[in-house]
Amino acid sequence: MFRTLRGRLLALFFLVALIPSLGLTYAVTQYLARSLSALRNPETERALGQSLEVIRQGIERLGSDARHHAEVMALAPETVRLLEAGDMAALERLLREEARERALDYVCLYGVGGEEEVRLFGARLGPRITLPTPERSALLAARDAGGLVSGSDVPRQVSGVAALGNEHVILAGYQLDPEVSSEIEALQKNLTMYRRLGIYTSLSQRGVWLFAALWTIILGLVSFTLAVLISRGVARPVLELRSGMERVTEGDLAHRVTPGGTAEVRYLGRAFNRMVEEIQTSRRALLQAERLAAWREVARAVAHEIRNPLTPIQFALQRLQEEAKRAEGPRPDVVSESTDAILREVRSLQEFATAFSSVAQLPDPKPQACDVGALAEDVARLYRGSSPVEFRVESGASLPVAWADPGQIQRVLVNLIKNAMEAMGGRGTITLRVQRDEEGGGLLLEVADDGPGMDPGTLERAGHPGFTTKPSGSGLGLTLVQRIVEQHGGRFTLASNPGGGTRATVTLPAAPPDAATTPKEQPTR
What we know:
Elements: H1 5-37, H2 42-75, H3 77-85, H4 88-101, E1 106-111, E2 118-124, H5 136-145, E3 148-151, E4 155-164, E5 168-175, H6 178-249, H7 263-324, H8 332-359, E6 368-370, H9 372-383, E7 390-395, E8 402-404, H10 406-424, E9 429-436, E10 443-449, H11 456-461, H12 477-487, E11 491-496, E12 502-508
Parallel strand pairs: 7-9
Antiparallel strand pairs: 1-2, 1-5, 3-4, 4-5, 6-8, 9-10, 10-12, 11-12
């Protein structure tokens, strides 16, 4: 609130009226508080509290002694023997004598095995001694805590309790002198009076502060009303300028403010309008640059997709040239494989051109049951004999059929093989490995080479669009591979170490159970 102009004006008027009132109220309140404090004497209250604390400690020591005597009597072998024998008369005589020797004022035996306590006997060992009458819950609590103070607000007796077996307790203790009890009662009353006096003083001080708070609120409301009326005219032009900024921030670059208010505010309004016009002009230029960059990216992608099928077509044509030079004539199977490869890549180009011309994007995959192992063997056979690179195909047994677009997966293989051959400099071994994806339940396709590998920095940027380490590369091969794999619901990862080669891994989902097990429209082998 205080960051705005109106908020600061409101705060200024509020403080101007509030500070003098608070000063006067504070002075009056302090004077009344000192007058009320003179009515009570903290030293007297402290002395009364200390006296009660001394008496409390003495009572605690008596309770500790009583508990000790009760435990000694309860643990005596003769006491246990008489209780087990059920000789209550002899047990009473024994406990009476033990209590008298220990200078106790009374001793009692209670049965607590039932729902209510039962006093089996009680012995008074002096004149004017009264036996305590505790309840069963108090006896059980005292047995666990080791003490029992009898009396209401003023203690009359201090007892110790000890368990005798599982269903009996011995209660023994002292009866306080009536004069001591009277003194305790008088001290408690005096201490209560002084504490009440302190409460009355505190309530009086709170009353004064409450009146001051109400008075302050009234002044604050009046000040706030005046501040609102005055600040409304001063802050309105600034608020309009802020509203204009918010609309521009939301994207409304056609909005303009009408400068008003003081000269400074009008200057800010004109400057704001000029700034919005400049932003609008810059935005048009930026959009034009983004469109140009987008078209360049599309052009690079199209060129890359057209260039990839040209490599297999070139290899197939070279094989046909070599077959034509044979003295015994060309071999039909080689001619058939080469022409099939050329026709397959031409059809792929036609499909790409049709899809791109219709929707200006890469064609969507048409998944079907796809034998990835056979597809990898077809691609490897196309390159064998046309390049010094050695190609190996490793396919596991009982592999599931993948659910994928054969043409696009072949395009993935061609891209990965092309990158591997360029990284190895035309020599080495490329391994196409097809196995079960134990983690996802689908199929795992791996293209590994024994080339120089990549350092961590190059590996991290390898999949970024436009990144390439080759002078003539487009930097889109791995980007397109990743996009195709993601469209199939799979994953694409790269692993490489300097000097340890590179391994590209593609995971593909398995075909659904109701899909045809024999792939349709597989690339011709």
